[in-house]
# Entry
Amino acid sequence: MGMWRIDGDQPRRLSTAKLPTEATLEEYLERDPSLLGEKLLVIGRQVRTPYGKFIDLLAMDGDGNLHVLELKRDKTPRDVVAQVLDYGSWVSTLKREKVIELANGHLGDVAFETAFADLFGDQIPEELNGDVRLTVIAAELDDSSERIVTYLQQQFQVPINVVFFSYLEDDGRRYLTRSWLVSPTAIESGAS
# Structure
């Protein structure tokens, strides 16, 4: 992705830089998950699974669906797809009580019910975790991972996607740009 600043009538390309750390992007997304293009409530960060692994961010949408967000600062290794599928397999087993417990543990002083109502303007749905969405967040995706994600989407309607963030700097200002492997609306409609 290219981005240019126009100085007078002269375009000047902004240089792409590396995020200082993966944790930096994780912090940005925790503070403002709408960077992903939809309203999400982050209900967990570095959520420990029973298998000794950690989910970078666990979020919920207004319908009560859980979103597993796996971040990679740079180009993704091929095994990131297996990693996010593994996390999704565990998250899909979480019952309502466990989801609320995780959320309350993460949100601290604000009760989950209050945080949900404040963000979505509604009460928590009766059914929580009806669907799980899987999102890999990276600067780049290797060819093998792209083929695997596309195959899972098209052949098996697995709700998995990749969002790309580019980090740019210009005269002391920092920018993030976002693009998707497949439009999220195409995945919602099943037409990837």
About this structure: The mean pLDDT is 91. The longest helix spans residues 143-156. The helical segments are 22-31, 80-91, 96-107, 112-120, 143-156, 184-189. The longest strand covers residues 160-170.
